[in-house]
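Q: My labmate handed me this sequence with no annotations at all. I'd like to see what the chain might look like in three dimensions before we decide whether it's worth expressing. Could you predict it?
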Amino acid sequence: MPPSVATFSGGSVLLAWQLKDKTVLIVGGGDVASGRIESVLVADAFITLVAPSTGLHPLTRKYLTESDRITYHDRMFAGPQDLDNVDMVLTAIDDVEKSREICAMCRERRIPVNVADIPPSCDFYFGSQIRSGPLQIMISTNGQSPKLANIIRRKIEEALPEHAGEAVEKVGELRNKLRTRAPGVGGELGKRRMRWMVDVCNAWDIEDLAALDGDLMNRLLDDGWEKNKVPKPEDIGSGKRRHSAVLSPSSSLSGSALPLAIGFIAGIAATAAILLAPTRR
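A: Here is what I predict for the chain of 281 residues:
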């Protein structure tokens, strides 16, 4: 049964923000700022860092030494001029009043801003993240309990299959090859492409998807896409485990994928049990 509309409140819209080649201003250079720097560098953005050198965290210093995408200013925030040509602002300083002042300037210029430790001054939140190559999973508590978000993240991370990030990367390459072979947007061809990719992901184990290379992808497209079916990995010269029979594009979740799904659900259930269990006194 779908949830009641009355329950649709108190949350946020979780988005994967595209920051490639954008400019992000980070005010502060301490422990929290070092985490912000890492997140922004992963997104392939440029960083302008404003912070006195006396308070830089060792990780912040490391990023300054190793990355050519950071422009560093050894000083305090100077005023509105620091916001020129900036696409996003992240503050991570102990001065609450200065943080709120920067937030107000950003709001005037309609620049999205995150103010560390002051949720009402945030246009968006940083959650606890799992990263494995292109795979990213974020757990957000809307700024209410970062520690619980971290506990839940660890539980989910334990339930994820090995090589999940590699599998995501290889599936992305396969999808691009399929689009090249069968170009076009929307329509019946687009629907068929989507159904076939879904069936491949359901029918193949994570390990087998992660083991795909260019030759195997071409064979999968030749023997699968072109013949409107999903071959087993061993049928195209791959495969580390026994798989079920060849599936048609309308096939449902295969037996090989069920243990993965069950394991993931079990991990979530274990998290809920831990968080909801009565506290011992």
